[in-house]
Amino acid sequence: MASFAFVIHPLDTDHVAKKFSIAKYLPEGVIEKFLRIAPPFKVSSIEGVKNSKREIPGWFIACPLTTQQMVTLPEKTVINKIIQTGKMAEKMGAQLLGLGAFTKVIGDGGITVAKNLNIPVTTGNSYTIATAIEGVKKAANIMGKDLTRAEVVVIGATGAIGKVCAELMARETRSLTLVARNIKELERVANTLLYNTGLSARITSDLKKALAKADIIITVTSAVDTVIEPEDLKPGCIVCDVARPRDVSKRVAQLRDDVLVIEGGLVEVPGDINLNFNFGFPPKLIYACMAETIMLSMEERFESFSLGREITVKQVEDISKIAAKNGFKLAGFRSFEKSISIPDILNIKNKAMTKGKIVNAKPIFANKT
Fold it and tell me: Which domains does the chain have, with CATH numbers?
């Protein structure tokens, strides 16, 4: 029978305490030592996933390492832990494994994990990209920004998600800046964009300088700490934060009521799907990477759809069609884990315009979507 599993992990020790109340009373170091030796475990059953033939069971399975552990422990140790989690999914009967959060970042983007399992693996990156770009376009429309004239910046442009986001945005704008730490890798990405789209993108490792002029920012780094602070952003800019943990500091929400920060990759699931786990979202909202695993299972496409560092534009287009066919759609906008309405966004726009610094704006009606 068709089935699937999706790997999650605690972002930090506070998340562990939400699942195991005893962790509230333990020092962080003790919790991390326990997680390092703890086996993977089932978090919840995913119910109500159906196609035209049957209901398809699914599970969330925890890989018990925090984000900090995943980036500080030896890579081999972390990958072995992820493989161990995948083998548990196999024993439970899963025919497809989805990798979430940092389990798809460590190492080679899931390739080694897939080689050590007997079931296909997907990172969900194709649908994450699709929803991020869709969200940016809709937000720009509401904020009255002309994408062809906007200064667009992609942070983390050498990563699997960043490269494709950059190519898709290169089709929309005349001004694109790519940001990452490795200049040689940035040069390769820029050359590919020039060949594929005809747009000559600027490249830089100077994040603060790139942000200072940006109208639209897509940020998708694998950084553990935030990289964007309120002082970095100009009034009226839009930031789509696709990274988990987030790239944008919470200080932005506290200090900047004239910029729009949206969370990339949140999706409304169709029908009566019940995750039986609270991710801190309203009911029926999940990350796009999770949605990709679910919709591929609904289609009975048990394949490594998104894997490694070379996601293509065609994959993004294909998964978008699968999503539309099965009733998955971009959720309403959210900012720092809270819903944000169109009137809220228009209020941000008005505050930025009041300061007289918003650029590339055009008149827009409140009911335009």
Answer: 4-126+267-330 (no CATH), 128-265+333-354 (3.40.50.720)
